[in-house]
TrEMBL record:
Localization, UniProt: Mitochondrion matrix
Domain Transketolase-like pyrimidine-binding: 87-262
Species for this entry: Ensete ventricosum (Abyssinian banana)
Name this polypeptide is given: Pyruvate dehydrogenase E1 component subunit beta
Domain of life where this protein originates: Eukaryota
Keywords: Metal-binding, Mitochondrion, Oxidoreductase, Potassium, Pyruvate, Thiamine pyrophosphate, Transit peptide
Amino acid sequence: MCHLKNIFHYINIELKGGVFFVVVTKPSPLPLLSLPIFPLAVLDFEIDRKMLGVARRKLGFGLFSATRVLPAGSVLPRKYSTAAKEITVREALNSALDEEMSADPKVFLMGEEVGEYQGAYKISKGLLEKYGPDRVLDTPITEAGFTGIGVGAAYYGLRPVVEFMTFNFSMQAIDHIINSAAKSNYMSAGQISVPIVFRGPNGAAAGVGAQHSQCYAAWYAHVPGLKVLSPYSSEDARGLLKAAIRDPDPVVFLENELLYGESFPVSAEVLDSSFCLPIGKAKIEREGKHVTITAFSKMVGYALQAAEILSKEGIDAEVINLRSIRPLDRATINASVRKTNRLVTVEEGFPQHGVGAEICMSVMEESFEYLDAPVERIAGADVPMPYAANLERMAVPQVDDIVRATKRACYRSVPMAAAA
């Protein structure tokens, strides 16, 4: 069976006169592509400008209806920012990889379609041409195999960056990530260092179902020997990836597919090739005095939106971007709670044994006497991710959920009877 993503080796998608055309560029094994050129009557097609990695949308042509996967650049290609102080998360990751590969010949990238195809999300764009196939390695679809090769290379002093097309596929390689990479330094009494980065999109995207939508932050943060990072902004992505590549230990680097096309302002310092963020240090994205909200990855944006809404109702929320899940910046979190006296944690993953639960416990242990209200914990629904769009939205925390939980923490909730 031909892998769906491989159809783009055979076709180009062009827009002419408001109509999309699929142009077959080489013989295809797929019946769908047997016609040389055919128009697509777009019945239900909206590209989310914020989701330029892989967009999945329903298309209808004639009496046939199908779902297809569109790689970045096929339709409505993003016009990358030319402003020196604004870059996308995709550009930030690409530039970080480029600069670290240029600075250290031991750094190399491996994974499915990272070379000829330039990455499923175009993170590795231009790297094969610049560094060649010895340092940008296309692998077979066998995560266990190429992850083991990467760990072995790290044993011998190289610095592999292993890309998973989605972190859901890292489950195929979890033995090498945990037993081979995470435990080797301890089991060798410090004689073996494993400088390897495991990176790729993590968590929910849009309409990709239960097996491609899980958040693995809590999974990997549970493991001694691993460092777990999860960037939100372009600054995070650039600085944390550089730190991960330079680190002597294995790092799990959890990106978000929906953030790849997001643009963020960055300073000249961030764009400097020497820029690097410290692992284990959170960032206060918004200062406040009434309540502390912690979040990571895409949820940071939601928390900031919620904080703006709350500010109009007199609640001044402090938003902490965790950046690092393991090690966790407990000092920054507890210092904030001791100032605001309230805590709301936000994460996309499952609620039981999650990142939020660990943060709540840390605050209970270190700052309990400062709390003026019970802690509030927001997480994804305790079910596998639904495929239907309306159910998917209900399974992932939304801005309104953060607003309601924060009001509860501040004793500002509307009674149910009054709301009715």
